[in-house]
Amino acid sequence: MFREMMSGKLHRATVTEANLNYVGSITIDEDLMDAVGILENEKVQVVNNNNGARLETYVIKGKRGMKTVCLNGAAARLVQPGDKVIIISYKWVEESLVKEHLPKVAILDERNEIIEMMKTEPAATVR
Fold it and tell me: Residues annotated in the binding site for substrate, as ranges?
């Protein structure tokens, strides 16, 4: 049996753009993707801390070093530039390996710079 587990997370990313006229997806700086193991075309969940919206979409690589987090297409209606979002990827883990599974969690500042990397999350995070 397998369980679907959080694999990677960009915590409190700042939305830099919202592009309604694009086909769809989320564009993320490739450096941020690499930090938490998110791949191009991978399905992710996006949670908007400002308005509570939750959506699923796929990832497009953004240019390295630009710190881009851009919601495209219909998802652009659920965010505004400046909103704080959580971007989560998941993977299937064999039941026997679940207890050893450690996700990669990047805590970001307001400029989408990684300020901390974690492999587990505290019960509550105050930032």
Answer: 57, 73-75
